[in-house]
Write a structure and sequence with these properties.
Length: 272
């Protein structure tokens, strides 16, 4: 199976890149299943019901969220009506929605999608992500009830993401980080067959400060004072993420490919 994962959709620019580019990208990559992290798609903070529907209609098979999952209040009710949206497993026990789901590709193959929030350097003391993930992976062994399992680890610290990758090695098809909006260059297949990437980056305008218009972040760094709200940059966006090829019988990864499409963040040419 070929599974495409795209990082945090950032504001209007990211939404536009998805609606205008995902159909073609999916066809070019021959992706069987597409997962998109949409947690910053609405003004850089959360995801509205309308924008969620826009991303799903554009070709995403599943959306993941993050620590801003319910910043947009209509998501509190919409997520219970839309099973294709996954919020973090270790969010509040009272939170609506689900932290994992099993979906089918066009050929009927089952894909488990789950998400967890990291604890290190995050603003809130979320529950232990490792035990939450372990419980779900034990219930859905790869190559058994599902043909593939993808974990979105939404976290700040690279060490925590890497630890999660090794913790899930041999049990998940792909462990991919989100949240920092900066793509890392460490795509690899771990020793027991799990594809791993520390951060998928964002689907947004990279002529920015992690997706935000540069003026206000620069002012705060230089003066220590704020004047305006952060607003998403609205230039041409890059779709950024990873494509993993998996074995249907074992559920493990066979290959990992970095994905960059459009905008400023194009892959560098191979030097002689």
């Amino acid at each position: 199976m070929r599974i495409l994962f795209l990082g945090d959709v950032m504001g209007r620019a990211g939404r536009r890149a998805i609606t205008e580019g995902l159909t073609d990208l999916r066809a070019r990559l021959r992706a069987d299943f597409v997962i998109v992290n949409g947690e910053n798609a609405s003004g850089g903070m959360g995801l509205t019901a309308g924008h969620a529907q826009l991303l799903l209609d554009a070709g995403a098979d599943c959306l993941t969220l993050g620590d801003h999952a319910f910043d947009q209040k209509d998501m509190l009710s919409f997520i219970d009506r839309e099973p294709r949206i996954i919020r973090p497993l270790n969010f509040s026990r009272e939170a609506p929605g689900r932290g994992h789901g099993v979906f089918s590709d066009a050929r009927g193959r089952k894909v488990l999608v789950l998400q967890a929030l990291g604890q290190v350097f995050m603003k809130r003391p979320f529950d232990d992500p490792f035990s939450a993930v372990d419980q779900v992976l034990r219930a859905y062994p790869s190559g058994g009830l599902v043909q593939a399992a993808v974990l979105d680890i939404h976290a700040e610290a690279t060490s925590e993401k890497m630890a999660m990758g090794h913790y899930c090695d041999g049990r998940a098809s792909l462990v991919v980080g989100t949240h920092t909006h900066v793509p890392t260059a460490d795509a690899q297949v771990l020793a027991r067959g799990t594809g791993y990437l520390t951060d998928a980056g964002m689907c947004g305008d990279y002529d920015s400060v992690i997706g935000m218009d540069k003026a206000e972040p620069m002012r705060r760094f230089l003066t220590g004072m704020s004047r305006d709200r952060f607003t998403p940059a609205e230039g041409e966006a890059t779709l950024s993420g990873v494509l993993v090829e998996t074995d249907d019988r074992s559920g493990m990864a066979k290959a990992m490919h970095m994905v960059r499409s459009g905008g400023r963040l194009q892959p560098s040419p191979v030097l002689p």
